[in-house]
Amino acid sequence: MDLSSINEELANIDGQVSDILRALANGFQKLEKIKDTNRRSRQLEELTGKMRECKRLIKEFNREMKEEESRNTPDTNRMLNEKKQSMIKELNSYVALKKQYASSLENKRIDLFDGGGGDGFGEENVLLASNMTNQQLMDTGNRMMDETDQTVERSKKVVEDTINVGAETSAALKAQTEQMSRIVNELDSIHFSIKKASQLVKEIGRQVATDRCIMAMLFLIVMGVIAVIIVKLVNPHNKDIRDIPGLAPPAARKLLWHLNQR
Q: Which of 256, 255, 249 is nearest to 232 (CA)?
């Protein structure tokens, strides 16, 4: 029976689950051909993510099926339940397969760790201590001690290099901090100088404005005096214009003196 004729949402979920199950089948087939342990681990993680998504979709399918159960016929409900069980069964088979591969990968990691893998260690592990002479045992022990000493020396060198780099970094940071402090002090000095210069410019501006006012007043006074003198010289008998003290003509002063005597 076509699920789209029953419920579009159920048909959509069924299609998504089918796509994921096909992807899981192809993914596990691909996993069989991968030999590298790290790549197999990444592939297995990707398949695990797909299985989680498939499980979520099956739960959504079940929830939608429960909501439509009262509106469907018993045969339809039985068919939908069989479809759900088929999905769960197929997903569980991939879950079991995933556990099998995960256990195999874990065993391989343990084997690699215990097996060593360094130069000459694989062959040496094959030899049992009971089959080795005392000289061979001593040579093997000395070689292992030498290699351990070399490893310790390399580690010490790495630590010393790290300490030196840390000291150089600390010195550089200290120098940069001092330089930043000097720059901040210089900026404060510049700011103070700019502030003082601004105040001085304002004071000079006010002084210049005051001087201009004084010069303008003096100019007006001088022009007034010149105007009075010119008018007096042109029309000396004009009584409306008083003489400026100290600037009256001598003849005019004598005439005024005689008139006053009379």
A: 249
